[in-house]
Amino acid sequence: MFEAVLLTVITAATPLLIAAVGELVVERSGVLNLGVEGMMIMGAVVGFAVANQTGSGTLGVVAAIAAGMAMSALFGFLVLFLVANQVATGLALTILGIGFSGLIGEAFIGVPGLRIPSLYIPGLSDIPFIGPVFFQQDAIVYLGFALVAGVAYTLFRTRLGLVLRAVGDNHASAHALGYSVIKVRFLAVLFGGACAGLAGAYMSLAYTPQWVENMTAGRGWIALALVVFSSWLPLRVVAGAYLFGAVSVLNLHAQAHEMVNIPSQLLSSLPYLATILVLVLISANRRLTLVNTPACLGKPFVPDR
User: Does the global pTM surpass 0.90?
Assistant: First the structure.
């Protein structure tokens, strides 16, 4: 029983983890992209459609990443080159993604999906309890942890990470030192889009291998909250993602338990209630809120002519 719960928590937390670590990089560069939900849902539908038509889960994942990057490139062009309002553009991106995904996915509703296979590691995968939980996951689960480790190392141990954080903390000084603020931010936005697209692919090819309209169900917004919850630190994203994943799974197991007499609607709202509660608690502590917040987050930059 406990093993089944852990496996479910891992699958529920993975898309949150991947989307959140991508958005963390975007916000570290000083850009606020509220379009994570739209990019995720586009990744989900494009990944499912390509996998269904080609019979290849790998091609589906690649297509989902490309879809997320295309959506993020549109966002980056509008807010970085045309200096559009970041909040309004991000919200518009989410609305566009939800609507366009419904149009693309209409032909795939009810169509059997293609599940990404789990990996099998001889010897390790056969260990009772430990094997199924740690060594029989699909490749995207391990890729999620690799992304966190890679982002943490890059941000705090490399010159590239130093430049990215400098752009997010003081874009004027970074520009004066000769760094291309627009280029750095655009590449960060593309990375965030790729992660959101990958998270969407996980939703439709691993978590629930089928296409259902609006299947991300607000997970993009939870990923945005996770970035704040983690104080813009990659390793804390892991704890936050698994905490919210556990809350999401809790309502499913509680509904299946006959002794729990709680309305299913209330149980289904638990992840979102937890998100609101965490944001309220963090906002109450101003020092915690400002300690790692990029100083130029959401502020437009227009280079000197």
Answer: yes
